[in-house]
Structures
1.
Amino acid sequence: MNPRVTALLDQAHAAAAHGARLFADLADRANAPIRWITGPEDMSDTIRAIVLRFTSRAAKGQITLCPHLNELSPAPVFWLAWAPGRIRCIPCTEAASRRIKGTTEDRRCDYCRRIARLIHPEGMQLPAIVVDLPGLFAASGPVTIMFGLCPACHALAMPPSVCADLPAG
Ligand SMILES: [Zn+2]
Ligand SMILES: [Zn+2]
């Protein structure tokens, strides 16, 4: 295998492990269970729509990287549904989250766009990938998609029957 690819795979692997730890911490702090989605058929329409918003923006080149990231060094990164033009590193994610705190936008549902008194913070992690195709060589760390849902959308997005809990260990 191309040694550059091997090196990137190692980095992507490390970034994936780092991303998984961050995500577990996040879930722990929110006291929320981690659910394991194995394929699109496990996704509710709400979740699928939000993932699609991310992937179609990315495919159209409508997402830029924050200045601390680049395509050749995979690291855990974040996409915030309420600030969708950018993929951010951890400190930039924290700064963007602080900026919205306490504003009306902070109470807007990222699915139905209504303002709600209570917004459930949600997160979803897409795995790290390395792409080695003619003319395209890039790697991406795990992408954590962050969004907030009003109680009605939350109930539809996370029905308990949709996904099994992550197996222990
Ligand atoms: Zn950054
Ligand atoms: Zn909603």
2.
Amino acid sequence: MSINYSEKIPNNVDLASDRTLQRALERWQPEFINWWGDMGPEGSNSFDVYLRTAISVDPKGWAHFDYVRMPDYRWGIFLNPAEAERKVNFGAHKGEAAWQEVPGEYRSNLRRLIVTQGDTEPASVEQQRYLGLTCPSLYDLRNLFQVNVEEGRHLWAMVYLLHRYFGRDGREEGDALLERRSGDPDNPRILGAFNEKTPDWLSFYMFTYFTDRDGKFQLCALAESGFDPLARTCRFMLTEEAHHMFVGESGVGRVIQRTCEVMRQNKVEDPEQVRALGVIDLPTIQRYLNFHFSVTMDLFGADVSSNAATFYTTGLKGRYEETKLGDDHLLNSNTYPVLQVQGEKLVTVYEPELNALNERLRDDYIKDSIGGVERWNKIIDKQGIPFRLTVPHKAFNRRIGPLSESRINPLGEVVSDSEWQARQDEWLPSAADRAYVASLMGRVTTPGQFANWVAPPPRGINNQPVDFEYVRFN
Ligand SMILES: [Fe+2]
Ligand SMILES: [Fe+2]
């Protein structure tokens, strides 16, 4: 399972033994590089960046760190090792040998799952394209670029599956993944959150905390797939994904840290006074949190979904930690709670669990995402400031599913349209909030220096010091 770096496309799938596939991917490769040039990090092509590159799929020592120019990054195809005698672990095919080729009758659903996942990867690179121009430090700039090159590699991971297992329509989907553009009204990315802007670094940290975590849960569910190549691909992607969420959690934590330090030193609490000191007031951080949490809620799809049931029953997409769950893995007779608006209230109704698998994954996600918010609250507590961040109710500000038809506040109360209009600036970042945060975004490129609104991290990357020259501009 070692990775062959002597080939044009690094891989551990013995690409050289399949000349047709190799040629198809080598034709896609320059298209990818063109896309990176057009839509990747703005103005970065000549930078030497201290990046990690996957060199093995062994969990110990899989990564190598060195300076790389991003257009020369060795994007490749890495699958976790095959598990001997792996089975389909859920649904109607439970107990059968896991599939090494695509089952014909599930071909289009499987392709759709792969394309939907694949589409998010270049989308996030596009969303983050201009952030390098306003980096708060070299350390942060390097982390941004690390996330970007790995999202590029995740696109490679999905395109490999499309080319290898779906023939001509797979190749067409691979091309289309480089043609859609985040936020483009004519040819947008598939999922809503991936067409939103990521205009500032607070948004970037929130995105990597909340939206990359959606990625984690989707990948975990696909890593259970009965289609073994998909499962193995997603397992390795998860290894890389952990750092993206670290960038988010530590980034938001450092913003909070800095704000609280300034509040305490200057004995101010009023948001206007906090802003006058050049840091981001806590209520604004809460509104950004509300926004990113709610758009990420929508990524899990409709609360009740017959597609989700089909993906499960046919063995294509499992639940989070499917094999650790102690039920029959068929779910034909189970129910699961979902929310509905009845009259003026949110009420819980019970749906067949098979149809509520999106809701279940959303709930698993919420449990996971609350942990980091509690760690952020500890930072605030330590500074003795009476303020708590909370995640909004899962029905707040939804755009997908039946809950999107009602106005629901962060506490989960149904409110009138006029109340929503009057109060939405308390709940979501207003134009003024965004303008204020944008006004803080400068560009700090001296090693070891940080923008005023964010605290330095406690330690650097890969045991390097915080003031290491993580990016050389040349
Ligand atoms: Fe990704
Ligand atoms: Fe990610």
